[in-house]
User: Fold this.
Amino acid sequence: LVVCQGFLGWYMVKSGLEDKPDSHDIPRVSQYRLAAHLGSAFILYLSMFKTSLDILLPAQHSTSPALQGIRKWSGGVAILAFITAMSGAFVAGLDAGLVYNSYPKFADRWVPEDLIVFSPTWRNFFENTTTVQFD
Assistant:
């Protein structure tokens, strides 16, 4: 898993260093590669954290009802945190935070005009700088 994390890091950085003849902008990494790298880092960290907790606090010693409830809900909370982090990777990879810098409205509108513009629609959730802010 550590080798996979290193490979994904190299693969992500490589996407930002490729010369694009039609662009004179600063190097940008692919939002997909950034999300894959961040996702593998989360999985690596959580697996190490769970292993250390299993060693320090074995399940057979946790008979407390409060601790059982925490263990039951911790998986769902971890999944929600993972989804939130992946959404943040797409926002960061697309520099979507720079699109609308007025709060609470989006360019004096409550619902932005360019929320769903790509076809097929699913691409908006990964490639549209406005929609990824709502993921």
